[in-house]
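Continuing the batch. This is chain 6 of the set; chains 1 through 5 are on the previous pages. Same settings as before, nothing changed between runs. Recording input and output for traceability.
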Amino acid sequence: MIRLALYVGIALIIGIFAFWLAANPGLVNITAFGLEIRTSAAIAIVVLLLLTFVFAFFWRGLGWLIELPAQVRKAREQSRRAKGYDALELAVIAAASGDAQGAVKNAERVKMLLDRPALSGLLAARAAEAVGDIAGAERQYQTLLEDKRTALAARRGLVRAALERRDYHAAIKEAQAAFDLEPGAKWAFEALFDAQVAARDWAGAIATLAQGQKRGHIVPLAAKRRRAVLLAAESAQAEARDDLDDARRLAEKAVAAAPGFAPGAALAARLLVMAGKGWRAAGLLEDAWAAKPHPALALAYRDLKEEEKPKARAKRLRGLVELNPDHRESRIFAAEIALDEDDVMAAREAIEPVLETELPPSSRLCTLMNQIERKAGNRKQANEWLTRSLSAPSEPDWSDLDPEGPAFGYRDEDWARLVYTYGDAGELIHPRHERFERIPLNPDQMLFLEAQAEEDHSDDKTPSPGDTAPDAAGVKEELEEVKIEPAPVKPKRKRRRKTAKPTTDKDKTGAEPQAIAAKPDPAAPSPDLDVAGFPRQPDDPGPLIEEVSDEADVQSRKREVH
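Output for chain 6:
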């Protein structure tokens, strides 16, 4: 409506002007260059308007011709930019879709079409990473180091490339440069710390951890636990090079960082005992037990005093239990202490709360109940618990400790893994479980237990009050009565166990042995064999007192503190 009114107004103005011009005719006389032109005013005005339009058109055309090359270049640039953005879009879509070849192809087009070296370089580097061209990605990232805007991103790419080819020293170098360039970059802290742990640079990882904690890149609790693991690993490294003073100092710092870290406490206690500071080792173990009980701590505390009477030792061990009496490990340790003193009732009372809360009971608990029932003279119940232990779930910690061996025989890769499993989650898992090294059950053991169960059901005898608990020799006679078929040949296992030597001599009772596959030597029992003569399973804590020696107390055995 407004436009129509405008047009009507213009038409009225032209009409009024034309009417005025017609009402006032005039004469125009032009003399120039020897020429004289005479015409009316109306025609002169029309000619002037025409000449104005011609001149304007000519001037416009001349300007267009002058600007034509620039316009052509601009059109080409716009077309090229549009194609470049199209290629960029296709490259991003291909990378997100997992089309590595398409990402590389379109990244090359972006590099040719767009005058954006940072964008095209990053895209080309990521595309090279997508197809596994690590060397090509590194070349692209090296070119991006010259630009301050892309330097940090280039460092990150170089760290990824170094980790991809397992060059941890190069990764440490690039991550350290990135962390120095931007301390607030959390990825730089994590990359540097992870590379140092992978390279077993414990001291460097401790320093990086301190810087990361100051910057708020890690929560304080996880930082303390990680520091405890790193200090313990560095202590073990110092011990390996016979620098015992430094190893002891680092181990004590590990305990101070996390008192509940059992490997650090056991390591510190062993080094302190070697230095003649048993009282200090006892204090560390007591603090660790109060924070978080662990079966290795119990063994280490038990072996602090070698020449000690059984009653005095039991009293001292009960003092350790009282530091954290309601914990599961404290109850189990109390049952073991009572069992060593032949107090079956006390052992039952200590272990019953654990059995009531854990359903089904673990293999470790079943084995302990088997020992209690054997001590009480209940052979049938003992065999039932032993049978249950075969299918019971195992415990992922150090519940299968060898009393004569090291509790924490860590390798470097175990320490590195523990930095994260314990440091971040607080979980202390035996490396054997993480490596799937659980030993399968022996077929002879299965046959023996099945034969024992059948014999118990067939006999169905109730022991008289005068009967005593069967000793090792009686159990061996029962084993000899069962004829065991030879087990099928199996491939060799990684972990070998000692086998009993066959013999044809008469046993202590004078009875001739039956036909069996192998008979254990009663004169030299193997620590890997249990009371029945077959290999001990990982959850079996060891033979009972009377099964080892009738004269010597089992607690007087000298063991190295671990």
